[in-house]
Amino acid sequence: MDYQISIGKLKRNLPLVKIGENTQIASFVLLGDTELTIEAARQLKDQLTLDFDFVVTLESKGIPLAHELTRKTNRDHYVVIRKSIKSYMTEPVVTTVESITTSEPQQLVLDGMDAATLSGKRVVLLDDVISTGGSLKAAEELLARVSCQVVAKVAILAEGAAAHRNDIIYLSSLPLFDARGQIKD
Ligand SMILES: Nc1ncnc2[nH]cnc12
């Protein structure tokens, strides 16, 4: 079973995927979808009225979108919060988080070099989907630890209860589904 979303003139059919006993999500995979990435960045740019220094995204599905939004807003650099510590990082700053799509707690990691870049700066925190908001909240805390101010929280899709939030900018909402494919409240 599929659920169709529209972003501007573009439509995508998202397959329902079981993630829990009585929960299915409509699987949204932005990676590889250049057309949708460009259109979403165009629409998000129009909604970003506050001044900011950098786009920050979380590995990995937000990366092409961060690239495109950075280009479109005439910035020359963006920062990726990674999901693991890499040997090439200097003094990584680390936190942990549970996400709707992963069973184990995940690490969120900011390379020390990126932490220095972001210190005292204003950023747009960008993701492909905001769902429980757990990753977003953990990323905000991580950024606050390095004295970086999040001035906007932005996604293509707000899933489930996230669609009722008034502290995020998003382009379309996405329901959660029960085991039979019915939309959950
Ligand atoms: N519906 C969804 N599709 C892909 N990734 C997600 N992460 C959270 N919700 C998601």
Automatic annotation (TrEMBL):
Residue stretches making up the Phosphoribosyltransferase domain: 39-164
Keywords, A to Z? Glycosyltransferase, Transferase
Q: What Pfam family is a match for this entry? A: Pribosyltran
Q: Does the keyword NAD apply?
A: no
Per UniProt, what is one GO molecular function of this protein?
glycosyltransferase activity
The family database entries (InterPro entries) matched by this protein are listed as: PRTase-like, PRTase_dom
- SUPFAM superfamilies hit by this protein: PRTase-like (SSF53271)
Q: What is this protein called?
A: Adenine phosphoribosyltransferase
Where does this protein come from, organism-wise? Limosilactobacillus gastricus DSM 16045
Q: What is the lineage of its organism?
A: Bacteria, Bacillati, Bacillota, Bacilli, Lactobacillales
